[in-house]
Amino acid sequence: MTPLAAIIAARIRATGPISLAEYMQVCLMDSRHGYYATRDPFGIAGDFTTAPEIHQMFGELCGLALAQAWLDQGAPAPFALVEPGPGRGTLMADMLRAMRQVPGLHQAADVALIEASPHLRGVQRDRLGPLTHLDRIEDIGSKPLFMIGNEFIDALPIRQYQRTDDGWRERLVGLSDDGLRMGLGPVVSLARTGSVGDIVEECPEGAAFVEAAARHIATHGGCAILIDYGGWNGFGDTFQALRNHAPEDPLAHPGQADLTAHVDFALLAAAAIRGGAVASRPVRQGDWLRALGAEARAARLAAAGDGGAMAALRRLTHPDEMGHLFKVIAIWPKGAPPVPGFVALEAHADHA
């Protein structure tokens, strides 16, 4: 057992099985043994590599998309430039470098990061210099919000429910003679349809976060772009762990592996609409980046001597790499122009 596994086991013995949401929360954020609270997990030396760590063009294109949205809404000043779950600060650094090309934008931007990990807050300050860290989206104040979140929602705690002959039951983490194991709780009321054996996942924290952001955007202006892997109205068990760049049993090494689940973009879009904003249809990451000019940008970088630009372009956009697995959704105020690369959800009946 890892040190955190022993703590979780003792808790289960004392009070009974815990939800996946509770399990994820303690595994990722426990102050002494939590995965994000104690380490830098990004890059080759860590457990996984995110798009901003692959190449600078990803962050540059994201920054220019936000910049165009800012211009389209009349260049409000000041505004909050926010990133939740910013990792090492790589994405924000690349966005800011690209945004300096837009007159007046850099001076108008109040940069803020939403980060729960004290360790990663230190890493971000080392990368970006003095900046504001927030605990919640509600702490922004009344400024327009221009936000981008890359692989943020997938790490928020989920709950899982399995359909049985008796109805839906929540999947819980309990104990066996061999250690932690999955089991089922009592029958619960769940407004979902399904067949016996089906598993559905919900991310209450993700939906609440998006609804709060949408409410702010609907009231004060701005936009949000959320990038993650997942689908639309998905079924199935997508709870997973990654350690040393390889998948493993999510219950095997609590506190020592990254825990994530696929994002259901249908639930995020519904949350944005509840918040009073417009939600886009989800688009594939590869399609979105190409629409923003990724191929031309990669060609220019390659011509300037960047030997990794074309390989990075393939990894970010190709269907066999990140191009189709990752989806992107945008949120903007009613009456405002769409965020570059997106179309309002209401105009489409089909979703990727």
TrEMBL record:
Domain of life: Bacteria
Pfam families attached to this UniProt entry: Methyltransf_28
InterPro entries: NDUFAF7 (IPR003788), NDUFAF7_sf (IPR038375), SAM-dependent_MTases_sf (IPR029063)
GO terms classed as biological process: methylation
The UniProt record lists the keyword Phosphoprotein: no
SUPFAM superfamilies: S-adenosyl-L-methionine-dependent methyltransferases
Bilayer-spanning residue ranges: none
Designated name of the protein: Class I SAM-dependent methyltransferase
